[in-house]
Amino acid sequence: MISLTDRKTMIDREDKAHSICNQCMLLSMSRSTLYYTPCRANDKDLVLMKGLDILYLEDPSRGTRRMAKELKKIGYQVGRCHVRRLMQIMRLKTVYCRPRTTVMDLAQYKYPYLLRNLTIDRLNQVWSLDISYIPMRKGYMYLFAIMDVYGRFIVGWSLSNTMDTKWIVDVLQTAIYTHGTPEIINSDQGSQFTSDAYVDYVKSLETVKIYMDGKGRAIDNVWIERFWRTIKYDKLYLLELVTGEQVRQACAEAEFITYYNYKRGHSSLDDKKPENVYKSAA
C-alpha cells in the first residue's frame, strides 16, 4: 500500500496525456487531497485542546456537551460543535455504555473486542496499541505506543506530526522484529487501524488475531489509556514543549519511556518494574 505522501509525489502536473483528475483517480486519491495544504492550528484552538486533554484525563466520561460546559466554567467561550471537532482531531473517545438496541451485520463489522474476562498470563499474549495527542506551545504531535499488557512494557513507540498508516505499520514491524510476534493485537477503531494497509499487514503474520475496542469504549484499552495519563501528568505537562525534538527527548532515552520500562515500579505488577516482568517471562 503506497502512502498518501508518496502518491502525491507521483502526480505529474506537466503530463498532457493524463489530466490531474485522471491521475488522482488512478492513485485512489481525491483531487482536493492533492491541493490541500495543512495549516497550523490557531493559538486559541491549541489552548482549548490542552484544556480538553486535561479534562479528559480527569474524567473520560465527559462528552462534547459536558466538555463545553467545563471549558466555559474556566473562562473559555466555546460551542459544542467546536469542542466536537477538536476532540475528533485529538482522537478523544468518550467512555460510556450504550444499550444494545441494534445488532450489527457481522459482514460489515470490523473486528470484535474479546479481551473481556480473558486471563492474560504470558509474554506477548496481548499487545495494546493506541495514538495520543501531545500538546506543544505552537502546535501538537501524535505519540504512538505499543504495550505488552502482561508486563506493561512499552515494546515500541514513535512520534509524528501526522497520523499516516505507513507510520503505524513501520513502528509495529520494528516492534515485532525486536520483541517477537504477539498472539493478539488490540486497538481502537480509528481509521489507521481499520485501513487496508494495517489489516493486511497484521493478517500477513498469520498467527496474530486482531481485536478492537467497542465504539466509544476507550476503557476497553485501559492499559494503554493508563499509560497516557502517566506520561502526561508525570512528565509532559511539567515541561513547556516548543519543538518536536523536545517532545522526542522528553519521551526517549534517559527520559520517561526508558524510566517507565526500566526504573518505575508498577502497582499492578506488585511494584515490580515492567522490564523485570517482561524479561523474566521471556
Low-confidence stretches: 98-109
State the CATH superfamily name of the largest domain.
Answer: Ribonuclease H-like superfamily/Ribonuclease H
CATH topology of the largest domain: Nucleotidyltransferase, domain 5
Overall structural domain count: 3
CATH architecture of the largest domain: 2-Layer Sandwich
- How are the strands of the biggest sheet laid out side by side? 3-2-1-4-5
Content-based structural category:
alpha/beta
CATH class of the largest domain: Alpha Beta
Largest sheet: 5 strands, mixed
Task: State the separation between the terminal residues, measured CA to CA.
Answer: 33 Å
Shape: globular
Question: Compute the gyration radius: what is it?
Answer: 20 Å
Q: Got a strand count?
A: 5
Order of helices and strands: HHHHHHEEEHEHEHHHH
- What is the tally of helical segments? 12
Summed over residues and divided by their number, the pLDDT gives a mean of: 83
Give the % helix.
40-55%
Strand content: 5-15%
Describe this structure in words.
By secondary structure, the chain is α/β, with parallel strands linked by helices. The chain folds into three domains: 4-35, no CATH class; 43-90; 126-281, Nucleotidyltransferase, domain 5, CATH 3.30.420. It contains twelve helices and five strands. The chain has helices at residues 4-9, 20-26, 31-35, 43-58, 64-73, 80-90, 165-179, 196-204, 222-234, 244-251, 256-262, 274-281; strands spanning 126-136, 139-148, 153-160, 184-187, 209-212. It has a five-stranded mixed sheet with strand order 3-2-1-4-5, with helices on both faces. The longest helix is centred in the N-terminal third of the chain and has 16 residues, at 43-58. The protein is globular, with a radius of gyration of 20 Å. Mean pLDDT is 83; it is low at 98-109.
